[in-house]
User: What shape does this take?
Amino acid sequence: MIVLWRITERCNFACGFCAYDRRLKRPRAEVSEADALRLGAVVAAHGRASGQRVMISWLGGEPLLWPPLFAVSEALRADGLAISLTTNGSLLHLPEVQEKLLATVDELTISVDAGQGLHDRLRGFGGAWRRCREGVSALRRARASRGGGPRLRANVVLMRSTLPEFETLCTDLAAWGIDEITFNQLGGRDRPEFFPAERLTPEDIAALRSCVDRLKGPLAERGVRLCAAPRYLDRLDAAAADDPWPVDECGMGQDFLFIDEAGRIAPCSFSTMEYGAPIADVRAADDLDRLPAQFRAAKKKAPCAACADCPSTQVSAKFGT
Assistant: This one.
């Protein structure tokens, strides 16, 4: 089971495509340390009772800006949970951050979109690309010397300006020491004003398919897994063509849960308002077992509009090959 938890809305980057752009004047909510420890213990108990491997995956904003991140991660990992996080990489160059990541994280995803110049401009942060490269390379060396450490993944946001650099970027990421590369298509939900000029077209997806075909073999020879399942590319093609992608059955709450910074637990990040339940109601492992039926009942009563054109990437085999 994967439990994706958005723990903070704070971020130090200025990405024109993201709702957490530091330039936006808006409240920046965060999860409390007490709530994270309490619910994490419940999730860990559920994992032990069910025999499932459970991973808590921290998301932001920028998770590394959440003060109790490493203390909470260490405690939950000691309780049997695997820990993952997605970072913009702005703090990866710091040796003290590298040490804490090596000690507390099983899987690390770094957001990198293009070559150095374009990535830094899109992220509104000079030196962002360099910090990612330095941090990943240092973590890979430390992992090799210690005989263990987090799996290193890069996730790329594909848009009209970054797509031409995707092939070169993948080669660079392999040289850094990345183990796995995933990608998302730019969406227009967070910042609709950014979307029209940068959205991908069906022709762009056709070019992406050819690029993936060229890359998979050479990357695999270097020990790098490029996640690009045919079904996932089909889903991107449908989005580019504005063709709905309805999902009737996604196994709501069985293998994947999302928790937001406001303390709502839901089947995905797009259904928290319609199907979400307060985490305060989840007091024991049995309460997690009841969530799938609760979500299905909520869907039957008032279906979430997103289900008619599902944007949840994991449902469309983002991590497949």
Q: What stands out?
A: The mean pLDDT is 97. The longest helix spans residues 202-221. The two ends are 20 Å apart (CA to CA). The longest strand covers residues 151-158.
